[in-house]
Amino acid sequence: MISVREFCREGDFPIAVFLTYSFDPLFFERIPWADLAIGGSRRILVVADATQAAEAVRRSIGQLAYLGRRYVLAEAALANAFHPKLIARLSAEGGRVWLGSGNLTYTGWGGNHELATSWPIGPREDDKGIWLDQLLSSLPTIVRSTSFEDQLRSIRNEARWLISSPASAENSSILFAIPGRPLAPQLAARWAGRRFDTLKLCTGSTDTGASFLAWASRTFGVKRAIVCLTPANASFDVTKLALLPMDIRIVKANPSKMMHAKFYWFSGPEGAAAVVGSANCSAAAWFGGNAELLVVYDNATEAEHRSALIAFRRPALTPTKALAGVLRIAVQEGRDVQPAFRLVSFRLRSGRAIEVVLDPQPNASAQVTLLIQREVRDLAIRLIAHREGSFIGRLPTDFVVALTTTFGIVEVVSDGTRYITEPRWLDNDLQLERANTIRTFDQHLRDLSRQSLFNSDHQRILEAIHAVSAQLLKASEQPIGLSAQPHQQGAASGEALDSKHDRAAVNPAAMVRSLSDLKRERQQRFGAQFFPYAGALTGVMAVLFAQDDQEELDLTGETWTASEPEKNLDDTGEVHTGQQVLREPGEAATQMPTSRETLIAFNGQLESFLDELAKPSFAEKCDASRMLQALAFPLLICLRGADAGWLAASQLGSVATRVAQIMFDQSYGKKKGLLRVVRDRYTTTDQLDEFQSVVGNGTLWSVLLAALMPDSSTPLRVLLPQATALTNVLQCPDLLTHADAPQLSSLVQSVLIKNAEENITEKAVSVAQATSSLTELLATRSDALYREQGSGRRLQPAGSLLWSRLWGWKVTASEVYCPSYLNFDAAAACHPEIRGATKRLVEACEPLGRESFSDVASTTLPSRALSPVFDE
User: Which of 100, 576, 688, 802 is within CB 3.0–4.6 Å of 810 for a Cys-Cys bond?
Assistant: First the structure.
């Protein structure tokens, strides 16, 4: 059987569910979480014993990065212990389960003697998985976390085969114990009438009176028992063992590791049977109180269980001899004294709304305050009652959620008495949803991610570009992760606090001013710290924005290597994590030499995609999601081309200009612009809000502004169309209808284009204002200039920069007549006010910190024309 780490690394299972008693969050974030990431798991849910989880998390406050942000931890509160050990990895087609004795801790994954088994489940397997659905469905009664309930609902939606009807029945070999339904009666009913002579068992702990052994003697006729254990963990009372009607022997487990496996081997003349799972040899495990999980082998063979039976080759001693003089370790599976109130759910929903659930529910007159823990001073938020047991509040607009797990406590003042809960982590809905959807894009897009780029050959990159292009341009198909939008959560309790968003009131220039203010405040409070976007992005957009697991805390260097140190050490003793070194966009890449054929193919694919994007056939059928991804895709191609050394970094601005021209100016009969054509189609069908929710999230606005920022050294034939395109994007309210300043602030920080935030917040408005002044001046003088230049009857030389009040900028590829266009060079040469307006625009495009040009003549036009991609 494969190891547990290999099990977690198996691909094609986007869902992972863990059930465990003990939970070590530091270990989990460094080993299992990393293994699951390799295996493609994005929705990760951990259910642990409430007391064990609370203690472990309390010890780890300030050291956790992903709890509540990349995975959900739910606490199962029982009178006794929540003790099952299970890993379920699921997909839309089926799954695999891992069931055994190991907790989600370092010792449970190799430090102890453990035992586990795994097998496939699903609609096409012998095990249909009905038992797993019934098990998961029973958990909300003991887990009161609303995040857990939403995650469970999403899991059932993604793996719909898992849902069983109330009448579903299955001859399952799984036994699941909860209070009121203990294990012993279930096993007795299953093996009714069977008799066994000998019982061999491995256990991690025992009770004093060996109640399970006494039950096995009464129920199945067992006459001899051999128990393998670590003596220090045994609570057996030797005098009570002597009173049992059976011969009992003790096998001391190999002392190199603590025995923690749970294995029961029943044998006799009628055959053998076995039980493997989480239940120790104790009354709490078998007769009520604990939640436990077992797999039963009704007809077992020694060959199947040889690895477990090896333990019994060691000498078998009498209990008196085996347990004499042993210093026992107390094993506590019960409850400690709990505070008067328990914080069972602490959640950040949309709109900066905070939701808190307390158990038990405070009385109606109680004053409830949330204290979010920070280094300098805790943030106090007064909460108001919302639903039974739940309270809501709102984060202040200047509060920035940290890159590590956020913790909080709740203060309840009731009848003059003050109560304080134990700390609990924050479940951040946006970051969890992003974690759940970030890897849903097509495999070809994965090949275009920067980490994959430098490990891929040229042909594979070209094939990925071709495949994604074809999927985006075929409106009849819906490839997962390209057009599909992230799953939208249902109505959240925090929505009651949200005012109706005024779509018509969006002011892009005011939004930029807000971004500048937020940037200054952030720098004053946190210096240069990076706060990545925490929302859910899919497809092309997910690749165009920095992933916070690449930019923030890198935990790979802290991975435990005790069992395999040689894998992470070179001859110098230095640790290597295997992480890719991220390059700045446009930075020279260490690639093999590129052939001329590759460059021709790459440029041809880019040109072909832009041509197809501009066709009426695409505009007539594409939905808003596909349009958004398709408009962004040429920018991704340029960034990857620059990384590979196939394109100059400056080409990004030219491609972005062409994209903006298609968005706003492309002719579609009586309408102009792809954006307007698609918007009008949604408006006609009364779906405008759906269009705005997709297009107006700020992603396309952010990435286009970053790509379109011109440099003052750029030739005017490139700079002026590019600055006009930037102005059109900046002033487009449709791109911001569902965005707010804090969200945009993290987006512009995350754009994988160099100096994106600085350019957007410090230069965009100035460039747009200067551009508008120039084009307004041209429009005012248009008629006079047109007559001055021969009313369109003059032949325009190749490479001429032309401007039209109707059609904007144009660069001629060859000598041609262009009625209705003005020759900009001729106009600037004859009119000082046009030269002055152009000079002010060039100065607005100056890189931050550089001296301004003293004369617009320094930006003289080169003699060569633009790349054929942009020729008329």
Answer: 802
